[in-house]
Amino acid sequence: MQYVFYYLDNWRYANGDEPESFFRERGVLWFDGPNVIAFSILENNSYYAFQVHPEYVDVASEVLGYLTQDRGVRKISYLEQQSHIDTALEELGFGEPVHVSNEYEYDLETEIHGELASGYQIKTVAEVGDPMVYGRAKGTVWSGPPMTPEAIELRVEIKCGAESYSNDNVYLVIKEEDQTCVAFAAAWLEPVSKVIGFEPVGAVADERQKGHCQALLKAVFERCAEKGYRRASIRTGTADPEAPANYLYQSLNPINVYRVMEREK
Question: What backbone torsions phi and psi does residue 8 show, to the nearest 5 degrees?
């Protein structure tokens, strides 16, 4: 599951112009020689609290011990099949696991149905030429102080410095009538594992239930498959099977649906 390492890149380049101390205090890395084998982002997000490379699962207990005993982490989530993490958390006194969200895995060669509605086009941010076309749409989907036009413009500018981010990989559904963005899917490519992750995927409120996201993801899968990528992964923020996100991602013919479990101490 190497694709999870893009979370670290995304977090590092999505926090504005914070001082270096901000990242030193909240980011913890474990190395094997020059290679990062595990990381934690200590910002009250249970899924970011612990990520370990699948080839280094033997360090899980040691890392979890440090996080819980030295850094005071009290909530950690993991994929249900990661039994080694589940066992370690139980031994550390964490409570019973709770199903909190889903992780969908796709084979990019799998056929997906979905056609873009008339009057719309699929373009990348690079093709549009103005990252704020994407930024303005994103700001209407998730509101609040971090999503003001000024904050979004700064975040988009800084994200361009991330190694795994590219405006060529941020795909948009553009309404031809006024050239506004009505749906988006930001793909983060892992060239070593040939896996792509997505953060974020969304559609503006008055353009939902028109098939935009399904048609968009179908196009992204096809284009990434042409570049040699083999798998895609998308995580939802809820376990509710009736939630629109879970309904959408289930409709895309996943080859695996992993339950994300959370334990709290």
Answer: -65, -45
**Partners of 99 in the beta sheet?**
261
Closest Cα partner for 41 from 9, 88, 17? 9
Which ranges of 77-187 would DSSP assign to H, the alpha helix?
83-91, 125-128, 131-141, 149-159
Q: How far apart are alpha carbons 29 and 9 in whole angstroms?
A: 12
The more confident residue out of 5 and 184 is: 184
Is residue 168 a contact partner of residue 224, using CB atoms and an 8 Å limit? no
The answer to whether 263 and 75 have CB atoms below 8 angstroms apart is: yes
The H or E element that residue 175 is part of is strand 170-175
Tell me the residue type at 23: F
Around Cβ 15, how many Cβ atoms within 10 Å? 16
**Is 146 a residue whose pLDDT tops 70?**
yes
Q: Exposed (0-12), middle (13-18) or buried (19+): which is 205, by Cβ within 10 Å?
A: exposed
What is residue 102's predicted lDDT score, i.e. its pLDDT?
96
Query: What local confidence, expressed as pLDDT, does residue 107 receive?
Result: 96
Question: How far apart, in Å, are the Cα atoms of 209 and each of 103, 176, 195, 206?
Answer: 22, 18, 28, 9
Taking residue 131's Cβ as centre, other Cβ atoms within 10 Å add up to 19
Query: Residue 1 pLDDT > 60, yes or no?
Result: no
Q: How far is CA 185 from the centre of its chain?
A: 10
Of 123, 126, 165, 156, the closest CA to residue 138 belongs to: 156
Angle at 251 between CA 201 and CA 47, to 5 degrees: 45
